[in-house]
Amino acid sequence: QPTLKERLAELIPPTLERVKAVRAEHGKKSFGPVIVDQLYGGMRGLPALIWEGSVLDPDEGIRFRGKTIPEIQAALPKAPGGSEPLPEGLFWLLVTGEIPTAEQVAGLSAEWAARAAIPEFVEELIDRCPPTLHPMSQFSLAVTALNHDSAFAKAYAQGINKKEYWGPTFEDSMDLIAKLPTIAGRIYRNVYGKGKLPAIDLQKDYSHNLANLLGFGENHAFVELMRLYLTIHSDHEGGNVSAHTGKLVGSALSDPFISYSAALNGLAGPLHGLANQEVLVWLTKMQAKIGTDATDEAVKEYVWATLKGGQVVPGYGHAVLRKTDPRYIAQREFALKHLPDDKLFKLVAQVYKLVPDILLEAGKAKNPWPNVDAHSGVLLTHYGLDQMGYYTVLFGVSRAFGVTAQLIWDRALGAPLERPKSYSTEAIDKMFKNK
Ligand code: NMX
Ligand code: MLT
């Protein structure tokens, strides 16, 4: 059976041909008009990027290489004794469009475990961060520093032929993904005083190792949660802030480490990945104010107070989705199976019942339904990972899968430098004044 790199090498020539054929046939076709409001309105709906790993439908949610979350849950290989998909398999799917065998997935687990060590100076860099520095800032610093050993940067400096870019990009991407649990675990243990990092177990899968580095390796349900979590947070087509940032920075031929650290800085914003932290802060404050078994009326009043205070309800709304996020549903199903009586889960479910109607009545949000971040924190909290300031780091470990899969294809397909056109208000006014 071929390794991932061998299979990729087989897939690149026919994919190049396919892209050539699609461009020859459809290259001059139009998506329709672009209107001025889209320039002022955060480019909503503007067709602008090629992203191979996944496409997001507003009503149905994400499909990874054409497959829904329930489909990948059924199709991807599982760990012995586990029922959640292994994220190694999802990475294989994102890169190749194919479902790997159990043996190929085990090969990736072993390869990532073997590449997990980080340079000593990066360990020291993390150790020198004050615990008051946000875990996401520490994460992005450490990922930037990995560029010290970038195979792509080195090959570029030595004059590599552009046709070969994908090879060192693949190697850097594999290293990056492999080293993220080590970095994430070290940050967690430093910031929250959890003692020394254990060694990576070369026999275990990626999620098991991550759980173990965080101190939860003995808890089978938590390991299963990590498998699900890393799988569903990995990719959400190309226009979201982290994915687009990684692609944009990569288009300057910045290596995968510095491209991904840029993506992490976007993920760290409260309207994007930091929303998982915001949700838990919001729920905890709600519990402190109205108690743990609050009535629907008390919850509604709290939600309205949030809106009247000029704040968003974290975990609700989406720039593209117009229905409940299937990633929310997958996590809700996990909760119903593993922690149906958890008080915080009950509150999350109560909020799900009440918030959409309130957002509809308030009349501003185009999507009143919950997104992925409305549910992730309560699952982590249940197992004792209740340091909410850390949650976005786990999102960041997962999102590397989607961003690097695209970086590999961008270099394989010779994607050009991104450089869209911008306009000033004056230029727009002049352009359209008498039209
Ligand atoms: N609570 C209150 N107001 C909202 C919400 C919400 N959850 N969602 C949207 N709105 C408001 C929004 O702020 C905007 O107000 P204004 O006109 O005063 O600027 C108005 O509704 C229209 O916004 P939309 O077009 O519906 O949303 P947009 O595409 O601009 O933004 C989000 C999408 C996700 C940024 C927005 O829904 C939001 O802020 N949600 C809460 C934060 C969140 O959960 N982010 C995580 C997204 C998922 N992720 O992981 O990245
Ligand atoms: C994501 O997973 O990136 C978020 O849902 C945000 C988005 O898709 O815009």
TrEMBL record:
Catalytic center residues: 272, 318, 373
Record keyword Nucleus present: no
Keywords: Transferase
Entry keyword annotation includes Transferase: yes
Gene3D superfamilies, A to Z: Citrate Synthase, domain 1, Cytochrome P450-Terp, domain 2
GO CC, one annotated term: mitochondrial matrix
InterPro entries membership: Citrate_synth-like_lrg_a-sub, Citrate_synth-like_sm_a-sub, Citrate_synthase, Citrate_synthase_AS, Citrate_synthase_euk, Citrate_synthase_sf
Any one GO biological process: tricarboxylic acid cycle
Matching Pfam families: Citrate_synt (PF00285)
GO molecular function, one term: acyltransferase activity, acyl groups converted into alkyl on transfer
Record-stated family: Belongs to the citrate synthase family.
Protein's recorded name: Citrate synthase
Species annotation: Dentipellis fragilis
